[in-house]
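2024-03-11 09:14:02 INFO receiving multi-entity request
2024-03-11 09:14:02 INFO entity count = four
2024-03-11 09:14:03 INFO echoing inputs for audit
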Amino acid sequence: MAVTIKDVARAAGFSVATVSRVLNGSGPVKPETERRVRDAARQLRFTPNVAARSLTTSRTSTLGVLLPDLHGEFFSEVIRGIDQAAQEAGYHVVVSSSHNDHAEITAALDAMRGRVDGVAIMSPTLDAAQLRADLPSALPVVLLNCADARGEFDVLGIDNRGGAFAMTRHLIALGRQRIAFVCGARGNADAEARLSGYRAALCDARAERRDEWELEGNFVQQSGYEAAHRIMAMSPRPDALFCANDAMAIGALAALREGGLRVPGDVAVAGFDDIPIARYMHPPLTTVRVDIAGLGASAVRTLLHAVGRKNAHERVHETLPTELVIRDSCGAAQLRAGRVS
Amino acid sequence: MAVTIKDVARAAGFSVATVSRVLNGSGPVKPETERRVRDAARQLRFTPNVAARSLTTSRTSTLGVLLPDLHGEFFSEVIRGIDQAAQEAGYHVVVSSSHNDHAEITAALDAMRGRVDGVAIMSPTLDAAQLRADLPSALPVVLLNCADARGEFDVLGIDNRGGAFAMTRHLIALGRQRIAFVCGARGNADAEARLSGYRAALCDARAERRDEWELEGNFVQQSGYEAAHRIMAMSPRPDALFCANDAMAIGALAALREGGLRVPGDVAVAGFDDIPIARYMHPPLTTVRVDIAGLGASAVRTLLHAVGRKNAHERVHETLPTELVIRDSCGAAQLRAGRVS
DNA sequence: TTGTAGGCGTTATCAG
DNA sequence: CTGATAACGCCTACAA
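2024-03-11 09:21:47 INFO inference complete, emitting structure
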């Protein structure tokens, strides 16, 4: 079997209690004792048994992450941020994805019980109030990109509304008159906040708004592709298409090209997220930048805080800022050139 | 505290041994007993303490995944495949990324000791022989996309060489005479196998090959972008650019467009991986499809097999096939049209 | 078919 | 400062 604390104790000539104290820095020990214990531990390549430790301390040094789906760069970025922050804090990360409804989430949460010290849940369709009910014990939880639920949980999110508002205002400033919007998945909090920002900006500027200009979408390329085909059939045709994420904007670009329309000449196109590939599109995609990895890192920090406080603390409610990234797909470059000449 | 097996035993009116037998399906139990125990367990919402269970069984029901870096869709796809397969088998997944050299990998492996029943390691730069030396115990390990090491570990990989060979042959068949290649990261096994397939196909067809046509790259868009700029300055200019992955091909498309060259008219472009976005490029990208999620799923199956066998089994060495995906960036569509007319 | 009891490897609480 | 020893919650011979 593996080497245990007993073996170290025997080798060092002390009791297991002393070895434990040395290795955990708990309690006082004579320097000489410490040296001998450490030497023995090193020579035997002792690694504490995590299960045993976890059994007595009821801590696991691992955090859980629940994700809705694992498609595209968005989620890999979140995980990257989480993983990095966790690693720095000496924590492990167990991920579990494809949880799209309440039942799947509670099931996954149940399965994680005892394995993690806290959980980050990303579920833009989640009903938070319901969640609190059947949550295993006082497990620290941080919600990512969820609707409301302030007070119940720590909640981290993106300034979706502000970003969408800014982008829409930008399009209006560029002289676009008929701005269409491709929505994200129905019932998704991110999606709805972006839609709301779009509407607010139109309203704010007294720009025209039509129901038919709010097209269905679900965050994947294909839905942007289809939405673009639909606006091409409209008359008058929208002169701008703001997509609720970059993936759909990329799909839209392809469709408009096929339809023989020029971007941004005939139709301006904008996205949301600023995934790395956005700048390489043709034309380079104007979009709203979001620090996705930063969101993940914040989630870890928030969780670790809650773990320390045993989850009895003031709830955190943080919204990460977004930033307009002006490239060529909306004609800002052309506009600027026009002004100069 | 949480409810333990003792509470269930008391509530059901049996001993903990009987409860354990019922809940684990070990040993015989009277149907009536089983019913009462299950009822009690359900009513108390009993969930076994994983630490305690793990302490006695020395199994954790979780698998580890070590990844080099977490950029782009490639890794999110791998994780997706792993997560799904693991979930189906009732296993959890702990991920750890950013391990690029041997030291980081062994450190991460050490940290996972006792937390996982097996580990999948993706490290195209790994020296497998060295790894075996300082591996904690008989931990089942499966290597993904690593060089050699047959016999030492279970190894899963992609048919990089075959895919690159087929693509290069395709370009030659299309009449391309000067085919350049953008390499992947140096020292990366995938990258080198793809390069070797490219070379072999040129050689096989007695096509021209030049050192300057093998350009440096590192799998990210920017390096493809730069490589394309370099070939534009060559004379004679290559009439095809095969990139070791799609991300670089996308960067190359952007650069060629900026340079005023037509694709595929002036230069054919091809990628590798077939990430979802490839088909939405302009022109849609011809590439080599790889079932990345399938690779992850296979890794899980392989690991679970090894876990069952306590790692004493014939080593698996599997290579996943690739498939040519012909779109427009290489002119095959035009060629076909030409034939028809 | 069921119960008793020992042990898994640590940590933590006491005495010394 | 150090050493016994009792938990922690579960599984599994071994007995009954």
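2024-03-11 09:21:48 INFO post-check: Residues 14-18, 21, 27-30, 33, 52, 54-58 of chain B lie near DNA strand C (CB under 10 Å from a C1').
2024-03-11 09:21:48 INFO post-check: Chain B touches chain A through 53 residues (CB under 8 Å).
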